[in-house]
Structures are given as C-alpha cells and as structure tokens.
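User: Can you predict the 3D structure for this chain?
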Amino acid sequence: MNSLNKNPPFYSTGAPLKQAEAAMLMLHGRGATAESILSLASEFGQPAFAYLAPQASGYTWYPYTFLAPLAQNEPWLSSALAAVAAGLENLAASGITADRTILLGFSQGACLALEFAARNANRYSGRFGGLVGLSGGLIGPPGAPRDYPGSLEGSPVFLGCSDSDPHIPKERVLESEQVLIRLGGDVTTRLYPGLGHTVNQDEIDFVRSMMKRLIDKTSSGS
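Assistant: Here is the predicted structure, written as structure tokens:
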C-alpha cells in the first residue's frame, strides 16, 4: 500500500521566490515526478514566475482511481491535500499569496488541484491567481455531494481534457465545470476531440495567457 505524503519534498525552478512576481504550484500525475511537471515551465515562457512542485510518495497522491468512494482513498487523499496546503504556505512565507499563485495539475494532480480549490474556497480569502486542471476532474464517485462552502470570487479556471480520455470521463469534466462555476469561478472548459491523455499546444497557450494576465494585474497593483 502507498505510504502517506507527509512532508513531501518540494522542487522548484524559474524565478527565485523572493524576486518572483507570481508563482505556479504544480502537481504531477500518477507515476510521474515533480521534475516532470516542472518541465512545463519552459513551455510557458514566463520569467517572472517561480514554479514549485511537491513529490508524492511512491509517485502517486492516492492509490485508487479518483472515481472511487472517497473513503477508499483515505487517509492518502487528506495527506495529499495537506501537501498542497503546505506548498501554498511555503509560497506565502516568501510573500507570494494565493491570489498571486496559479494552482496547476495534470491527471491525478489535476484532480487533486481542483478538489483542493473547491474544498478551500474560503481559506485563502476566496481568490486564487488561477486554477488549471489538465485532464482531471473533481474527486469522488458519481453522485458524490458537491456542497462545498465558500466562493472562488471570480478566480480564473481552465479545464482542458480529451473528449474521450481513457482515465477522465467527459461527464466528470463537465460536472466539475458546473460546480466551479457555482463556486464563483470564471471557468473556461475545452474538450479536444480524440486528444488522448496528454497536454496539447492549445492548453499551453491558454495557460500562458492566464499567467500573463496575472503578471499584468500584479504589476499594475490592481
């Protein structure tokens, strides 16, 4: 059985935290590494960003599919959510608050990012600099209650996925979209015909534009 993700190591790239204007907290997928998700930083081309990524124990955040009953993925899921909170706390300690941080994940990491944001809409004064779920959706079995408290207060959200992903049902992406809209997120969803379980250039371009808007907003002081 997988070990818990207690005190995971964090890896970083990009601008030094004390000099960065904004940050991206990146969550890798099952079987992958922090270094692999950090490699996306070179695709984004945003030198004012610091990038931070935790490494899951055993290369997975929780042992079963994200569609399994929630109790089946405990206590690993709670431990993984705590790792995300630790990453945000690390950034805040360096002066980069949640409203200047984009939370991005791919696959299992995307599911974790979306679930964390939904569960913690109030914890960070409601607003994230951005939320990006690449090939992921909210965690839990069909019919799981989605009565999350709080509001995302207009946080920009991007959901990108294949319309026929072998791991992520299209229906869960669309359900996640509606839940995040209901929570007050400014949600853009793109389903790509026959993409497969990967990241495409359109997604890279969209995230890059989201990052640029955040830098522009931070620089203007608004």
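The beta strands are 10-14, 22-27, 49-54, 101-106, 130-134, 156-162, 186-192. The chain has a mean pLDDT of 94.
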